[in-house]
Amino acid sequence: MTENIRKNIPSSPPSSFVxxxxxxxxxxxxxxxxxxxxxxxxxxxxxxxxWCHGLMAGTSPTLFSPRLPLSRGMAVxxxxxxxxxPSPKGExxxxxxxxxxxxxxxxxxxxEKGIVLGCGRGKFRPEEPITREQLAALxxxxxxxxxxxxxxxxxxxxxxxxDARLISRYALPAFQWALxxxxxxxxxxxxxxxxxxxxxxxMAVLLHRWQRYGGAKxx
Length: 219
Description:
6 helices, 219 residues
């Protein structure tokens, strides 16, 4: 169901990450308008899901830009849409998140819920690319907010992943949980790339997997 997802994006300064969109109709769900999404690509169904449910738009009417890094502000905006765009109640805790930007309301909401914690010194850095481990942490915290309880984590064997030692301490529970829920699976060469910038394609795939995990209660 898509009725609970708000169709209108708050007005904001121009951004290469945002393009006006509406939730697509049933008859359009089989055809993507983006010329840079090859048929059969590993992210094709994720992009279709995110676009059809009004969670992500293109960077232009015909481009999705799947390899473009995802900014921290855009990542939180997408999660805000996923939760039907609830209204925040207070003021921003971050000095670099001012009213009037497309991410402003979303970051304020996420800060109130404890989904985002910032980057220290009262900053959020909304325009910086989000890393894969930061994105895993956002979904992990969102799961706790959605369920109203601490997510149970079974010990995960990281030995199979060559770069597991690079996961930051704060992100270890999030990565354990994401691997258990199959939100993150790693590459064929058994790497997680925790500190690499996440891409728009990866975000779309995570949203599709999240829906199958059962976290997206409004979709």
